[in-house]
Amino acid sequence: MVGRFRAxxxxxxxxxxxxxxxxQKSAAPVAESYPLEIPLGLDANAQNIPxxxxxxxAKVELGxxxxxxxxxxxxxxxxxxxxxxxFLGFTDGQSVAIGIEQREGMRNSPTVINRLFGRSQFxxxxxxxxxxxxxxxxxxxxxxxxxxxxxxxxxxxxxxxxRSFRKAFDAEITITTVAKAIASFExxxxxxxxxxxxxxxxxxxxxxxxxxxxxxxxxSNRLNCTACHSGHNLxxxxxxxxxxxxxxxxxxxxRFKVTGRQADFGAFKVPTLRDIPRTAPxxxxxxxxxxxxxxxxxxxxGIANEYQSGEIRKLNLTVQEKRDLVAFLQSLNxxxxxxxx
Length: 341
Description:
The protein has helices spanning 2-26, 57-67, 80-83, 130-139, 148-156, 159-169, 175-186, 195-200, 209-219, 256-259, 291-299, 319-330, and strands at residues 191-192, 239-240, 268-269, 335-336. By secondary structure, it is mostly helical. Strands 1-4 form a two-stranded antiparallel ribbon. It has a two-stranded antiparallel sheet with strand order 2-3. The longest helix is centred in the N-terminal third of the chain and has 25 residues, at 2-26. It is globular.
């Protein structure tokens, strides 16, 4: 009888052991959240992170590797970083984007700085999220000229990526997980704590006297710059026609291609002014090379056209006022919180 009870006991212990091992194998790994820092001047409550793609350390690191990987392009010569160089404010310093085989795009490469707070992506806002935006350059025949299927095949063939995706997603490699990883990395590219932010935060000596005068002009009703460049990220994320490029023989129709509304013809996303000294050239077509040129452009009232936004008008600035505005804009370079590359 004792032997029978002992056998039953061994059997139960074995069952419990096997059950525990099974649970251990099937349990998804615990994801380590990413310690995203929001610097002075930015609104932590304005973060735009999808519920189905929370930031984790594993996804951010995986996205960083993919962002720098030229194998994602058709000929292995272009990566996301080609057009979004960290040393150029995550732009490329070119008037328009340059893709594989030196093919020229139609528009300037916008910065990805502070897209954590963005509601739509691209100059014309055609993408509703960073995850959606990631897919565009991969397939664009001028930029990376690849197929989404080939991107997945390339990534899936790499044993390192196989391990990294298992760690980040506990799922197979798909174009969705590729996009989620890159988007996660891009959301960490946050910049604030500029001299402007320090001045607004109470440091009265953070800005030069010229920059302070420029800030007063910027915020004045006379210039009304804050009608578009407002809020913590210095953009209202809206679309405006300031006339840039509208004097060409075949102007870029901009937001009109997305909405079909004639009123949106030639309208483009209002860019953030954060880190603007680093992100030249300016405008959707890269037609202005310097900040003084930008100030002169707005002083003239942009380029008049029938679709021009009502906020754009002649400003009649003095030479000193122009200098002061440039001094203010120069104060908008942030202290970046992203990690070393």
